[in-house]
Design goal:
By secondary structure, the chain is α+β, with helices and mostly antiparallel strands. The chain has four helices and twelve strands; from the N terminus they run αβββαβββββαββαββ. Bound molecules: zinc ion.
């Protein structure tokens, strides 16, 4: 926890159960990089941070090596792990859906009710009930895009502070509903697994397409004494 306070912070606001929680993070989880100017999904997690102590500890817990991140923006260090899954503990996960227009944020909801502006918060937003229909609306520019933000701690070292993972994956948004249901049932004190799953399918033209999708799974009750 002290690590988080000693370093430049990246505040994140999560809406959980109607209340906003402001969190500061010490590092960010990603699973892509840019090769020849093209985004490429990778099978293992990468963790960016601006703190060499955090980078070393992540490399120790998750396994991997630290490199300087020349491409990925403001975090100068990147831990290239050899792991597609990490055990994470109490945190929050929420999907925000946003549609931007020429005058700014036009529609901000969780798929069911508005999250902003304050005057509209909690009122039905009118988005379709099915995720597939929401995705279609977003593709046409008529509906908001999903954006899932997870804030969590590493099970291997609780005191290091919060990490963040952000994804616009609709598949992840779908699993978030289930995980949030489980988290609510388990009093928000749940050990979870954040992992990357390979997905492969054949197109109509016979081409094989593969990609990685992020998945969150609830493993069981979180026990601090077991966190090391
Ligand atoms: Zn909506």
């Amino acid at each position: 926890m002290t690590v988080a306070l000693e370093h430049p912070c990246k505040p994140e606001v999560l809406a959980l159960g109607g209340t906003s929680i402001r969190r500061e993070v010490v590092g960010q989880f990603q699973f892509g990089c840019v090769i020849d100017n093209r985004p490429v999904a990778l099978p293992d997690w990468r963790v960016t941070t601006d703190d060499s102590g955090v980078a070393a500890e992540v490399a120790r817990i998750v396994g991997g090596r630290t490199e300087s991140a020349l491409i990925n923006g403001s975090d100068p260090l990147e831990v290239v792990t050899e792991s597609p899954s990490v055990q994470v503990g109490p945190g929050g996960i929420a999907t925000h859906m946003k549609l931007w227009g020429s005058r700014g944020l036009m529609h901000h909801c969780d798929g069911v009710v508005f999250l902003s502006p304050d005057g509209a918060r909690g009122r039905p937003c009118g988005c379709p009930r099915l995720m597939a229909d929401r995705k279609e609306q977003a593709k046409l520019g008529r509906g908001p895009q999903s954006n899932t933000v997870a804030i969590f701690r590493l099970a291997g070292n609780y005191d290091m502070g919060d990490f963040r993972f952000q994804s616009i994956s609709w598949k992840l948004a779908e699993t978030v509903r289930d995980v949030r249901g489980e988290l609510a049932a388990l009093d928000d004190s749940t050990l979870c697994e954040l992992s990357l799953e390979a997905v492969e399918f054949g197109t109509k033209s016979g081409r094989r397409v593969s990609y990685y999708k992020p998945v969150v799974k609830a493993l069981g009750p979180w026990r601090l004494e077991g966190a090391g």
